[in-house]
Design brief:
The complex is a heterodimer of chains A (about 375) and B (about 130). With about 375 residues, chain A is α/β, with parallel strands linked by helices. Helices cover about 50% and strands about 20% of the residues of chain A. Chain A has ten helices and 13 strands. In chain A, strands 2-3-1-4-5-6 form a six-stranded mixed sheet. In chain A, α6 runs parallel beside α10. The two termini of chain A are about 40 Å apart. Chain B has about 130 residues and is of the alpha/beta class. Chain B has six helices and five strands, in the order βαβαβαβααβα. Chain B starts with 6 loop residues before the first strand and ends with a helix. In chain B, α3 links the parallel β3 and β4. A five-stranded parallel sheet of chain B has the order 2-1-3-4-5, with helices on both faces. Chain B is globular. The chains are: A alpha/beta (about 375), B alpha/beta (about 130).
Chain lengths: ~375, ~130
Amino acid sequence: MVSLNVLVVDDEPGIRSGINRILRNYTVGYPFMEEDFSFELTDADTGEKALEILKEKKMDIILLDNKLPGMDGIEVLEYINKNQIDVSVMMITSYASLELAVKATNNGAYNFVPKPFTPDELRTAMEGITKNLFLKRMTKQMDQAGKQVRFQFLSVLSHELKSPINAVEGYLNIMKDKQVGDDIGDYATMIDRSIERIKGMRNLIMDLLDLTKLESGKKVREVKPTDITEIARLAMDTIEPMAIQRNVKVYLDTPENMVFKADADEIEIIFNNLISNAVKYNKEGGQVHISVRAEDNSLKIKVEDTGIGMDEDELARLFQEFVRIKNAKTRNITGSGLGLSIVKKLVENSYSGQITASSAPDEGTTFTVVLNKSTNP
Amino acid sequence: MNTEKKNILIVDDDMDYLSQLELQVKGMGYEVKTARDEKEAEEALDQGKPDLAIIDLMMENKDSGFILSYKMKKKFPSMPIIIASAVTSETGLNFGLETEEDKKWIHADKFLEKGIRRDQLEREISKLLKL
């Protein structure tokens, strides 16, 4: 049970004690709220008194009569508004006029209750204001949590983007000052490394664009019967140069013309990421086996490698944004740290599917993706 | 004037930053040893005490640098340590090492931002080596 502080401002003692009686044992609960709300009441007979109480105690709800002996209800409302006090106000008024309603609403009043009111009318009004209060607070909490995640993402992102710039800038400065002599040949490694870092940065930017499209939902999806085998071949072709360089053989095991309802670009992102990882984190002379099968309304993709593998701890962190498994075996491998988190988002959000990984150090890793019927076309 | 060259250990997992820093520090007239992770750094320490260490903050883990500097200070309490990182400018977090309170838990003598100018770095190193 959560108790909300309610301030009742009315110059008529009868109204104050009436409200007390009606709300004393009243609670508000909704299926979506974890707890019920009850009301803790405080009285004030004038607007001035109400302001004094507000200065000392945090109130959640104010039931405010407009016609008061000194300053009137609207003035109290103006004070609350001006001082940005976080409280929901319900006006109680005997003569509802349009002018008053507009003035009060402009000053942030949540609702009106006409006077005289029945117990049921007051309870209904309290129920509404409590629900509103709860939702307002939940939204605020979620906004804060969202901002926190965003901030972490951005600070890691800026680190990942700045590292290659720093590296390239460093090499250029060395060359500018001719720190190792006049012969350009002596700078060959630095030039190669600079190109390598710029490539890595380009990949990061491409991955970021994929991620942004996914998150904003702006990309228009085109879900239609798609030849999955063809896309798998396309992805293999893209990765072939890297596979040749690393002396890794890639095998595809799939029936011809396997058709599944999907967005071709999304399937390509999934294949590209899984196959390029399998090649990158492989060993000299290693292998990659890709298999694709249709099973009743779903599609199963398996990418198996004979690579360096990883341990349980590393496996557990694998799908997080910007997580790159860093150890002696992986340090010459470049990557944005976004690929698998993108694949996971796609698989889960667009195909209500799953991605799982199993691995053994020095033996290899297997990724299994199951796609179901595409959601939100 | 010291006739023997001072020995500096540089630890960073970014191979480009590591090689650039190595070149710079060598250019200042120091002997340089490099290590690319916590393990290599500890191996280097087993071979003898460097006169100073420059270590990166974020390596295998976000706090690898802190852990490493803690271990280094335990082994060689008198060896000055510089933690170099890009963290401050990116996150707006500021860990200076100005107060005694900070020095108690961050076992480093100086916290520098990566990408600092060569002459600044040279000044900081000679200050810590009391040259």
